[in-house]
Design brief:
alpha/beta; Immunoglobulin-like; 5-stranded mixed beta sheet; 23% strand
Amino acid sequence: MTRESTRRNWLKTLGLAGSATVAVSLAGCSSQATDNDDTENNGGGDGSSPTDSNGGGGGGTQTDTVEMTDELTFAPKEIQVAAGTTVTWENVGSVGHTITAYEDKIPDGATYFASGGFDSEQAAKDGYPDEGNVTEGGTYEHTFETKGTYEYYCIPHEMNAMVGTVEVV
């Protein structure tokens, strides 16, 4: 058996062991490619670090790029951008992720956003994993026009605290 299939075997073992909670929390951790109709560019990426970021994940890092990692994090977790900025989320790992706004945690009058192009949080949840999953090397973009604080999460990894914040000033 090859080293590459170890994660799949581990996940299978968890499922067979009856650990439904863990199996559900790891759902979507497949490196299998899916169709990302909502990604607004080809997601080729060069693997470079976030633009205008000094790394870290300290509150309000000024950047327009957020990385999604195999450690089940958005990096940086909190960013600050000017109104009219397009933020790009890039999957730099092999685990699939979503970008899903908490519908009740975005400013009044702001446009809802979620990878997959959904217009509501429930639609994003209902569409996953067939739509909205950003796979290895893929990207998702959203332009923030309304000032305020936006909170978002990854559907399959929310219980692992994969959440983030965009503050638009």
